[in-house]
Please model this.
Amino acid sequence: MAKIAYILLCHKDPEGVIAQAEMLTAVGDCISIHFDGRAYPDHFRRIKAALADNPNVCFARRRIKCGWGEWSLVQATLLAVEAAVRSFPRATHFYMLSGDCAAIKSARYAHEFLDANDVDYIESFDFFESDWIKTGLKEERLIYRHLFNERKHKWLFETSFLLQKRLGLSRDIPHDIQVQIGSQWWCLRRRTVEWILDFTRQKRGVMRFFRTTWIPDETFFQTLVRHIVPDNEIETRTLTFLMFTDYGMPQTFYNDHYDLLLGQDFLFARKISPEATELKTRLAALYADETATFKISNEGRSLFKFLTDRGRIGRRFASRFWEAESTLGRHRELMIIVCKKWHVAKRLLQRIRQVTNVPTAEYLFNEESNDLPNLGGIQATLSKRTRHRRALMRMLFDYHDTDRMIVCMDPGNLDLLQDFCGDRSTTRLLEIQCDFTDDYLVGHAVRVGLAGEQTSTETLERLLPTIRGETTYESDKIRDADFEHHYIMRQKASAEDNAVPISKFLSIGYDPALSIARTDHLFAD
Model:
């Protein structure tokens, strides 16, 4: 009988990780956990303490700070695999999971499924011949060195890439491998995993190559398995059911997807909504049910495509997803910096990003040219962003794979602030109250079109009290709205005083907050 060692990569929700580990090990399987080095230390300590007495749980010997598209994801996986091989000598299969995955079959079904065929389950398609990559970089993922994270340091990522391209600094792919590509969610036999670990110790050149490729979690294991395992022992598919929306984001499953998930020819599904508590409870009970039977219809993807196609032309029987799922999510935290002086807010945001590493976006509802990822067109114009504001924000949370995000807004966007503060998510505001000199207000009037280069001094003098009054009025309206988590920092206040609202806004200690408050030239015009 198969004995599965699950390889769990996770970075949040300690209670969910504990519950997932207890559920999977209760039937005799094992789990090796890598908890992201960027996550809260208290969360990791809570997980270790809760699972300390479980002999079927082990942890990677080192926690890696993981980033999307980076080698760090592969490195974290290898560390968890090494721990599993060492700790669970009787494990026959190693199954890759994330914290958002859930079993959609019973343990008995999964064991019998794996016993039926002596193969490895991994998507492994020829990198150059297949059409697995639909858009974006393809060959460039491999032949150039990618040293920066595309999501965190977009300018550095693109500049480094373009500079290498311009200078002709491409490199050869190692001649002794044929690069493959596929989903990162796999299930491999023990001997395959042991061969992979031996390969990593012997083929240093290949390892150096993959360390600087882009999105190596879609190519590393896929290439090595094809290199060391005979073709007739590879089933080119994943056992984890996942779908993608029109916008290239993973489809999230909710409580009413239970019957659909059970009918799919897969053992697990991803992504399960953190709020789908009923679904998680039912699936957990199902995993331990030795009498459960399953009717495989496998209609999930075709049904999703059918409904999506009709949604495009208004013939679907439900509203579009941004109307039906209008909340950001009770588990998420949206932090909004509100400031009339955009350059001040941007300086503060840049410093916060350096200290906390929380994903950020600048004035995305005010500046058309804001540097946003491609989200299928919803981000294209200010009108679209504003009209589908919650959908846009949910997609940004999903894009950055985070539950915390910081954005900037103009105090004139009171309707947006009220909308987000009325959401079930936790929303915090940090209002920066700046001093406005006459020269600054004149420049502001020119920038927004209230005045021009030829406007007379007399006209500007009559205009200034109105503009100054407008800024005061906007601040008063925000205060009158009585938002629950509304913190204020002032230009006239000391850095020590401003560190207090910053600390509360970001949920960080006083010392890092003080470091942020002391940002050089923060209020300079």
